Polysaccharide export outer membrane protein (Marisediminitalea aggregata), 267 residues
Amino acid sequence: MEVKQRVNRNTFRNSCCAMLAVLSIGLITGCSSPYSPVAVEANPQVVESLQRFTRDYTLQAGDQVEVYVYRHPDFSKTVTIRPDGYLTLPVLDDIKAAGLTPMELDRLVTKALSVRLKEPEVSVFVENVVEPMVYVHGEVQVASAIPIRKAKTVAQALAQVGGIKREAKVEQLAVIRLHKDGHLRAITLELANHSQSSYFLAMQNIRLLPEDIIFVPESHRSQFVRAIQDFINTPLTGVNQVLAPYFQFRLIEELDDVNETTEVIIN
């Protein structure tokens, strides 16, 4: 199915980005200090997708998966996905599980068991889901996924990947987030003071949420525009490449078309 989207560019609204309603940073050096606190005023800018998405966990090698078949204990089993991405279930050939969502594995096993059982009821349980991550991408020293316990702010995340490259355009850094309403939003900052140090100070106060993507573009604005295109306008390619192998995005409209006849639970 060909997916087309439009980009809705909005300035900051309280209803859509409360976390950045007013961003100010006070550097307090102590009661005896002769210096006054420094405030950095920021005006967040938001680019929002018009279509809505959901984020699905993607199975990978090493995941422990319980496949439960209702009223058929002989067909049920808890297995670990092998390094080659396959798992083995009773009476079935090896199944390629890595890269699938739990729901996709559920449907695959259900279809395979339908040859032997009448209307099998299958449930898939993922028992060791990866810890919450944030993803740093673009002009940084080592683009990678970082456990959020080590990167609670944008500044901490950049430090974890070794900082930015010389050609990076920190003033166009964007935090890309899937909100509860299903819309993707890329958040950038407009500061009254355009010095690079002001942006780094502002980053100290930008709190991250699990599965946030931080994108640092090159100095050329064309790369920033391409990134917004990839991450917001066509996220099924751009965002999914960054989140792989942990998650993938799917259009909510696609999910509405799926006939879900089995239960999938992620513990």
